[in-house]
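ARCHIVE CARD
Drawer: 12
Card no.: 0347
Subject: one protein chain, sequence and derived structure
Cross-reference: see card 0346
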Amino acid sequence: MYRRGCLIAVVSLLVLGTGAARATSALPDPVAAAIRASGLRADSTAVLVQEVTTDQPLVAFNAERPMLAASVIKVLTTYAGLELLGPAYSWATEIHTTGPVREGVLAGDLIIRGLGDPKITLESFWLLLRAARERGVREIRGDLILDRSYYVTSDVDPGSFDNEPLKPYNTLPDALLVNHKAVRLTLAPDLEARRVRITAEPPLAEIQIVNKVVLDNARCGDWRSRLRQDVRAEGALMRFTFSGHLSAQCGEQARYYSLLAPQVYAAGLFRVLWAELGGQLRGRVREGPVPQDATLVARQESPALAELVRDINKYSNNVMARQLFLELGTAAFGPPATTEKSERAVRQWLANKGLDAAGLTLENGSGLSRVERISAHGMGSLLVAAWRSSVMPELIASLPLVGVDGTFRRRLRHSGVNGHAHIKGGTIDGVRAIAGYILDTTGRRWVVVCLINHPKVSNAHARPIFDALLQWVHSAPGNGPMRPADK
C-alpha cells in the first residue's frame, strides 16, 4: 500500500509539471496518524493545503472529489455576496399607507413590505413601527397588509432536513422574516410559590403555554432530559405544553423555538409592539402587494452586508445565509427570489472569475443540506481567489478566529494556532468539515480545507484530525515528512 501511494504521488508530480513540483497526494504524518487513530477510512477524507501566493497546492488528497461540506459552503455564499452585492449592500423593510391620515387616524390600510432583510430584529422592527407613529399614524381604520411577494413562497416542511421543525436553525427564508420568528421560552424556579414560571418573549397571543412542570430540588444535571414538551397547532395558534420536572438548583433556563408561520409571527408581533406604542388596529390582517397609489411612510435599513457576513460565518447562521443566497438571484435577475436564479448567478460569477465549478452542487447556500457539495480543490481555489480579492478583509474577518471567537472560540486555545487561524467549520450528521486561512510561524499564509464524509463521523473522530492538520500547517508546512494514508 505504501509503494502504491508513493507511485501515485510521483505520477501526480509528473502530471502537474515543474510549476507544481511541491504538490503531493500524500498526507502529513500527524494527519495520517490521526485518521488511522479515528478508525475512519482515509478515502472518507479530502485535504487541500496551499499557500495563498502560489497557484498549486502543497497537499491535495482526494481533493477533486465532490463532498458534502455542511456549513463550510457559507464561505462560498458570503464571498459571492460581498463581490456581487458589495460590502455596503443593505436590505430595507418598508411601511406604506393608503388613504389620508387625519388627527392620527389612517382611514385606509397600512402595508408592511418585506424585501428579504436577513436580520429584522425585534429592535429594528420596533424602530420601523415607531417611525410610522412619528409620521402621525395612531389608529388604523383599514387592514394590516403583509407584502411578502419579494420571495416565491413554498410549502416546504421546515423539518424535512432532520425532523426538527421547531429548531430555529431550520427556519425557512421569507421576504418578511421578523426576528427569525424565534420565541424565547424561559423557565424560572419560583421558590416562594414552589413552582416553575414559564414566560415567552415576545409575548405573542398566538402562542398558548400550558405549564405542568413540577419544581423539585434534585441535582440539576441534564435539565433538558427531565422536561417533556408537546406542541399542537390549533388553527393559527400553537399550544405548547411543558411537563416533567425542573430542579430549583438549575436556576433560570431558556430555550428557543420557531413555532409560527412567518406571516402569523409578523402580525402577532405587530399587534404587541403597536399597542405598546399607543396604536390601534381596527381592521383585519391579510396578505397582498403594495398598491400602486400607496404612500411610503417609513423605511428601516438593515446593517451593511460586511457586518451581516460576520453573523453568518462566525456563528454559522443558516437562516441569514439562505436569505443572502436568495438575494444573489434577485440582484442578478430581478424578483421574485428563487433558488434557481441564485444558483445561476453564482455559477455565472464563478465562470467569470475562471473558477472551476465541476462537482459543485447548490441547494440553499447554507450547507443545511444533503445535496450541496464541493470538492476540497474547489473550496481551496475559492479561498485563494478571495485572498486576492478586494473584499478579502471583510471575508476573512467574518470567519471564526480559532481560540478567540465564534464557533471556534474554545478550540486549540493552548496551542500556537490560537489567534493565528480564521476557520469556518461545518457539522451535520455524517459530515465534519473545516476551511479557511492559517498563518504559519514564518509569516506565510495558507489555505486549509478538510472535508470528512462518513456515516459514523463525530466530533470525537474529526477534531483530532482537524487539530493535527492546523497545527502541522502552523508549524511551517514542508518541514516534516508526508506519507500516503491507509485506504
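Annotation on reverse: The domain at 2-88+306-483 is CATH 3.40.710.10 (Beta-lactamase). The chain has a mean pLDDT of 92.
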